Amino acid sequence: MNREQYLEYVGHFNNKRYDKVTGYFAPDITVEYFDNAYGPQFPARTLHGPAEFAASYKSLHEHTREVLELGDFMASGGLVFVELYTEFHTFADPPSGSHQAGWKKGDITIMTNWVIYNMEGGKMKRIRIAHFRNHDPKTAKYK
After folding, report:
1. What pLDDT, on a 0 to 100 scale, did the predictor assign at position 35?
2. Mean pLDDT by 10 residues, the chain (143 residues)
3. Residue 110 contacts residue 85 (beta carbons within 8 Å)
4. Residue 111: strand pairing partners
5. Do residues 66 and 85 lie in contact, with contact meaning Cβ atoms separated by under 8 Å?
6. What is the domain extent for residue 103?
């Protein structure tokens, strides 16, 4: 995968074309999220398979607009590393018990994460997301 292909993937994600996003995935993909970035109420979690990924993000996007912006990009062999600037704009209160239960309507959460992709046969086989930094909500670019 090169930078241009990855930017296409980000475009599909930002436009909620979940079928296109999951087309980049191996059938047995795992997506591993960081733990405890916001306290123990947000434990690490892992999604298994394209359908679980799509369902998770469809649920999130029912109450929160999410925009990804690519920073650094490196690819070598079967590994891809990216720096993702991400804005979350919550337009409705998330359901209790969701991973965003601490957010409320009107909240803006901005962060930079580092993501490692293990590629297999041209598809994303394993995604690991590491939280790097939160940013001041007043600096939002995608209001």
Report:
1. 74
2. 98 98 98 75 85 96 97 97 97 79 89 98 97 95 92
3. yes
4. 86, 134
5. no
6. 3-139
Q: Which residues 6+ apart lie within 8 Å of 119 measured at CB?
A: 1, 78, 79, 80, 125
Q: Extract the tokens encoding 75.
A: 């690819």
Q: What pLDDT, on the 0 to 100 scale, is given for residue 37?
A: 57
Residues 6 or more apart whose CB falls under 8 angstroms from that of 36 comprise: 42, 43, 44
CA 110 – CA 82 distance, rounded (Å): 17
**Per-residue CA distances from 115 to 54, 57, 83, 104 (Å):** 18, 17, 6, 26
What type of residue sits at position 44?
Answer: A
**Structure-token pair, residue 78:** 């079967």
CATH number, domain containing residue 61? 3.10.450.50
Nearest in space to 52 (alpha carbons), one of 28, 73, 68, 72: 28
Predicted local confidence at residue 38, as pLDDT: 60
The structural domain count of the chain equals: 1
Please report which residue ranges of 15-142 form alpha helices under DSSP H.
Answer: 18-22, 49-60
